[in-house]
Write a sequence for this structure.
């Protein structure tokens, strides 16, 4: 398949939610059926649409994108209020899986952790678009020598793999942010995926919030709730797949080909940009950096 691999780095803590829960946490983060954190493609696509509408100042009174003002948004991501076949998006997005998540560590302050399941899931995505350097990086994590261990939390020892400094992917990931530089010291690779879910859980933030009655200055009745957040520094990977050749009246040609979709991506995205995912802008959450990994832009 044709497409663009990309990574997402959490600049702030990140809540991409699943809605209400009947458990202890009222607003949990999104997880896949195995219990690993994930960002569903629909959530990320919504964030990209918001970003596109803001970039071209194209929102109408109903809060939707006016395709006449931002045809590139409706070409790439689909028409807003139309349902006919010739406004279908010419790209699709994979779900985003974490490459590595920072968790507290007794002997290292914090350490990045991943698992065989996450490695193989992302490897399948990279294989789909033949992103060789990423595949090689993940293969090394999976089979590389475990020379030492890291303590996750205060009591769990996990084998540590030191990534190759010759890898372009390693250089790119460590340059995403200050916290990501810790990857150079090693990545804890949990071979037991059942344990990995519990170890990753130690890095997830449980944040209890409430509402204030501003007239009385006291907590409003029945207003206490708990949210989950992934820690800042979490790194995800995903793919922008090309759905071409395909007809979309907003693309400016009868049939949009591979060259067409690449040109539209260039109109919309730079190779590195910031956006908000999952909302929570008003409390300084959800800011991510997105980095495209192939030479389209």
């Amino acid at each position: 398949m044709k497409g663009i691999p990309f990574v997402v780095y959490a600049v702030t803590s990140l809540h991409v939610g699943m809605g209400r829960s009947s458990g202890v946490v009222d607003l949990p983060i999104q997880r896949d059926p195995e219990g690993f954190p994930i960002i569903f493609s629909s959530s990320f696509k919504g964030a990209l649409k918001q970003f596109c509408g803001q970039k071209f100042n194209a929102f109408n009174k109903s809060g939707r994108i006016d395709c006449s003002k931002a045809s590139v948004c409706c070409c790439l991501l689909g028409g807003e209020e139309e349902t006919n076949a010739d406004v279908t998006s010419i790209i699709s997005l994979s779900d985003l899986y974490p490459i590595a998540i920072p968790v507290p560590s007794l002997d290292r302050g914090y350490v990045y952790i991943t698992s065989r399941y996450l490695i193989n899931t992302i490897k399948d995505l990279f294989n789909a678009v033949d992103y060789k350097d990423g595949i090689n990086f993940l293969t090394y994590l999976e089979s590389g020598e475990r020379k030492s261990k890291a303590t996750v939390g205060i009591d769990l020892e996990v084998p540590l793999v030191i990534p190759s400094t010759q890898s372009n992917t390693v250089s790119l990931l460590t340059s995403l942010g200050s916290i990501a530089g810790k990857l150079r010291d090693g990545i804890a690779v949990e071979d037991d995926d059942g344990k990995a879910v519990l170890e990753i859980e130690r890095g997830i933030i449980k944040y209890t919030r409430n509402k204030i009655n501003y007239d009385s200055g006291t907590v409003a009745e029945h207003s206490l709730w708990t949210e989950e957040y992934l820690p800042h520094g979490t790194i995800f990977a995903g793919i922008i797949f090309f759905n071409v050749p395909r007809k979309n009246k907003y693309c400016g040609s009868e049939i949009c080909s591979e060259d067409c979709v690449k040109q539209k991506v260039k109109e919309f995205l730079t190779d590195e940009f910031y956006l908000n995912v999952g909302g929570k802008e008003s409390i300084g959450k959800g800011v991510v950096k997105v980095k495209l990994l192939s030479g389209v832009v």
